[in-house]
Amino acid sequence: MPAATDILDISPVVPVVVLDDTTHAVPLAQALQRGGIHTIEVTLRTPVALEAIERITGEVEGISVGAGTITAPGQAKEAARAGASYLVTPGSTDRLLDEVADTGLPALPGISTVSEALRLAERGHRALKFFPAEPSGGVPYLKALASPLPDLSFCPTGGITPDNAGNYLALPNVRCVGGTWLAPRDALAKGDWGHVEALARQAVSLG
Ligand code: 3PG
């Protein structure tokens, strides 16, 4: 099993996806892979998310499937049971962190302040999600964390676009960024997998 810090190095851009239809899961993952992205974070924001994780892990080889938006009791365990290979939380409560740790899976717990980052460092985390990145201070904020918190690496998400991703990726404490722009809902609804593949290809070139 990879370490949480390794998750950050799979792809410069992690597609954060919201799936409404399980039949989109496999073709979406395959389109991302054709575009050069070998990870996908399926958010637990829709009723089909767990089944989507199961389908991708069962049917698509060579892709690392994360479960994102873990916010409620029991979700970490359910995601692990569905086959997720890593877990992502937008914020970090003790209960959530304990449940994530109980699964044994690598995780990117979310923070948006220095104190939250320090609390997670105390618990042994070195790879963190910075969320919501743009409203929380964006590039200047993360840049300011690099010197006092040199052991921590971040995956910023929330407001990241192809236009600002490069500025984040240039920071020494950012190893990848995440965003929903790679899997637009209208492209999924239309089955426009060529568009998703093109977006993935463009995202890879940002790294
Ligand atoms: C996340 O959970 O990381 C965010 O919802 C990503 O938000 P975005 O739509 O701004 O990329």
From TrEMBL:
Q: Which EC number(s) are documented for this chain?
A: 4.1.2.14
Signal sequence coordinates: none
Top enzyme class of this protein?
lyase
Q: Which Pfam families match?
A: Aldolase (PF01081)
What superkingdom heads the lineage? Bacteria
What InterPro entries does this protein's entry cite?
Aldlse_KDPG_KHG, Aldolase_TIM, KDPG/KHG_AS_1, KDPG/KHG_AS_2
Q: Which GO terms describe its molecular function?
A: 2-dehydro-3-deoxy-phosphogluconate aldolase activity
Pathway assignment reads: Carbohydrate acid metabolism; 2-dehydro-3-deoxy-D-gluconate degradation; D-glyceraldehyde 3-phosphate and pyruvate from 2-dehydro-3-deoxy-D-gluconate: step 2/2
Complex formation: Homotrimer.
The name this protein goes by in its record:
2-dehydro-3-deoxy-phosphogluconate aldolase
